[in-house]
Amino acid sequence: MRYQITGKQIDVGEALQTHVQTELGLVVQKYASRPTEATITFSKSAHEYVCESTVHLSTGLTATAKARATEIYAAFDACSEKLDKQLRRYKRRLKDHYKDRTEPVELFGASSYILARESDVEDMEPETLAPVIVAEMQTQIPSLSVGEAVMQMELAGAPVLVFRNQKKNGVNVVYRREDGNIGWIDP
């Protein structure tokens, strides 16, 4: 796993870096098979130290935690406990959702486009109504139940997830609404 340990106007010594790598490595290895990157940032707010951690996993999950304490090691330990709890909950959710599944999740390919917006002129009408396509790539669309799709969307922290409904075999969308609820589009 790749670690990026930094301090905002704080000197992060070798002892703290070693402590962070050892403890965070133990926490992440308990629940995740292939972590890819961890970013830990220490800062000071008045008399307290603040530790912010972000761990990216190969499954696409990003776990984040933030903690405060009067000592820098205590701030990291509290942050590490929060990450441990978050990863434990995610792993339990995955086990609960996939315990009844007899076959692996089926994926099929689709094109994904990123459309550019004109940043210079926002209020004026564009010359042409056709947007400029900046990037085109292939993406995988999983075949899931609605409950599994909502769980995957929440785990990934995404605002929307496109999936193929297992029961109806059609393309569906789940998304997070502004009121905090989950919306489901079933055409």
UniProtKB/TrEMBL annotation:
Example GO biological process: negative regulation of translational elongation
Cross-referenced InterPro entries: HPF/YfiA_ribosome-assoc (IPR050574), HPF_long/plastid (IPR034694), RHF-like (IPR036567), RHF/RaiA (IPR003489), Ribosom_S30AE_C (IPR032528), Ribosom_S30AE_C_sf (IPR038416)
Name of this chain's protein: Ribosome hibernation promoting factor
Key word Ribonucleoprotein present: no
Sigma 54 modulation/S30EA ribosomal protein C-terminal domain span: 130-183
Record's function text: Required for dimerization of active 70S ribosomes into 100S ribosomes in stationary phase; 100S ribosomes are translationally inactive and sometimes present during exponential growth.
Source superkingdom: Bacteria
Family listed: Belongs to the HPF/YfiA ribosome-associated protein family. Long HPF subfamily.
Subunit architecture: Associates exclusively with 100S ribosomes, which are dimers of 70S ribosomes.
Localization per record: Cytoplasm
Molecular function terms, GO-annotated: ribosomal small subunit binding
Keywords: Cytoplasm, Translation regulation
Cellular component terms per the entry's GO annotation: cytosolic small ribosomal subunit
